[in-house]
Specification:
The protein has 392 residues and is α/β, with parallel strands linked by helices. 47% of the residues lie in helices and 8% in strands. It is globular, with a radius of gyration of 22 Å. Helix 4 packs antiparallel against helix 13 and helix 8 packs parallel to helix 9. The protein is built from 14 helices and 7 strands. It has a single domain, classed as Thiamin diphosphate (ThDP)-binding fold, Pyr/PP domains (Rossmann fold). The longest helix has 26 residues. The strands form 2 sheets. It has a 5-stranded parallel sheet with strand order 1-2-3-7-6, with helices on both faces. A two-stranded antiparallel ribbon has the order 4-5. The structure holds thiamine diphosphate and magnesium ion (MG). The site of magnesium ion (MG) has 6 residues, from strand 4. The site of thiamine diphosphate has 16 residues, from strand 2 and strand 4.
Length: 392
């Protein structure tokens, strides 16, 4: 067949396939001949409605859930501890956004409001010597893994007492004493590090597990294919933890992902590993899914994917004008806020009174206020040390 004919046939086949996909999910432009097959505004609105309706159905199903201790295997302190960590993250992020708006934090700051259940549910399933790799939206991962908010706040404000002596800022916080191998400004940048950590666990005969946090946007980074394959081939103790908040910057899932209508956890099938999707607005559901994946990895059962369906209440970064998403989209997600949701369940389950829940809230606000005072009182880095810790 002549080259032009082959190309024409391939184009025709491609067009036909796209047309079928359009008919099936109804979300694509009818004009499938265009080389960039974008999604219509109606298609996106429909997809967004579908996402939140799915989340609402899950929330209804678990609202009256009783017996949290039995379900999770956690005691009252463990369950209240999850509430505390989520509240600590929320307050840290709120203050962080305020400081950024006031010009007291430099650079770009990505906050995590709305997604707290993902970091906390996952890290509650981990031991202190397990590893995590984080993302550009990483404050929550550090707090959930037990990191110190004073050192974090000082780092964000560029103070000498910060985690990285004020040289790293928001996207470079690490704490080797707690297995926190670092946030990362490179989308997908933590993936190789996590699989490397898992490989080291295996080679050293240790039973530590690595959790690799990343977003739906990062799912399309090439390195994920390499490390997923490698982790499966070598049966490494790693969990690929996807935070599916439906957006990568201003691009929604439907614009950036082939087959967005498919369950993202199905990607795991390609590597012969298990993949599950859980309710990322419910800390208990995330904990149960993460626990199963972590225990499998620790027991020699190899890697897996856990996809958490969630939503970021605020913009991609503080100051994002949010022109790409309709305001009305946010309210139904806010109604699924994971923090009051756990609070209500603890009260309904008679594991805490409302007064106790409120007391945890007050204590976490006080802890963040202390962190802020610590950071404010801390010295700036001494310019004479500028070249210290510089290796290249
Ligand atoms: C390699 C690389 N490409 C692009 C960017 C710019 N960038 C920063 S965050 C982001 C979106 C990431 O989306 P997702 O992985 O879904 O995480 P989310 O922001 O939703 O938490 C992009 C494209 C980057 N930092 N690194
Ligand atoms: Mg995302």
């Amino acid at each position: 067949m002549a080259d032009e004919k082959r190309t024409a046939r391939a184009q025709k086949d491609g067009t036909e396939k796209k047309s079928k996909a359009t008919k099936k999910d109804g979300s694509r432009h009818a004009d499938a001949d265009r080389s960039t097959d974008t999604v219509s505004a109606e298609g996106k609105a429909e997809a967004r409605r579908h996402s939140v309706e799915k989340a609402e159905t899950r929330a209804k199903a678990t609202a009256k859930r009783k017996g949290l201790r039995k379900l999770t295997g956690l005691d009252r302190d463990g369950l209240l501890g999850m509430l505390e960590r989520m509240m600590l993250i929320r307050e840290f992020e709120e203050q962080c956004a305020n400081l950024y708006r006031a010009g007291r934090i430099r650079g770009v700051t990505h906050t995590y409001q709305g997604q707290e259940a993902v970091a906390v549910g996952t890290c509650t399933a981990l031991r202190i010597d397990d590893y995590i790799t984080s993302t550009h939206r990483g404050h929550a991962h550090v707090i959930a893994k037990g990191g110190e908010v004073d050192l974090m706040m000082a780092e964000l404000m560029g103070k000498a007492t910060g985690y990285c002596k004020g040289r790293g800022g928001s996207m470079h916080i690490a704490d080797m004493t707690r297995g926190i191998l670092g946030a990362n400004g490179i989308v997908g940048g933590g993936m190789g590090i996590a699989v490397g950590a898992a490989l080291s666990s295996k080679m050293l005969g240790r039973d530590t597990v690595a959790v690799c946090f990343f977003g739906d946007g990062a799912m399309n980074q090439g390195i994920l294919h390499e490390v997923s394959n490698m982790a499966a081939v070598w049966n490494l103790p790693v969990v690929f933890l996807v935070e599916n908040n439906l957006y990568g910057m201003s691009a929604c899932l439907e614009d950036a992902m082939a087959c967005p209508e498919l369950d993202l956890a199905k990607r795991a099938d390609a590597y012969g590993m298990p993949g599950v999707t859980c309710d990322g607005m419910d800390v208990v559901d995330v904990y149960l899914a993460a626990k199963e994946a972590v225990e499998r990895a620790r027991g020699g059962g190899g890697p897996s994917y856990v996809v958490c369906d969630t939503y970021r209440f605020l913009g991609h970064h503080v100051g994002d004008p949010l022109s790409y998403r309709d305001k009305s989209e946010v309210e139904p997600w806010r109604a699924l806020d994971p923090i009051p949701r756990l609070g209500r369940q603890l009260v309904a389950d008679k594991l805490a009174t409302q007064a106790e829940v409120d007391a945890v809230d007050a204590a976490t606000r006080a802890a963040i206020a202390r962190a802020l005072a610590f950071a404010e009182a801390s010295p700036d880095p001494d310019p004479s040390n500028l070249t210290e810790d510089v290796f290249a």
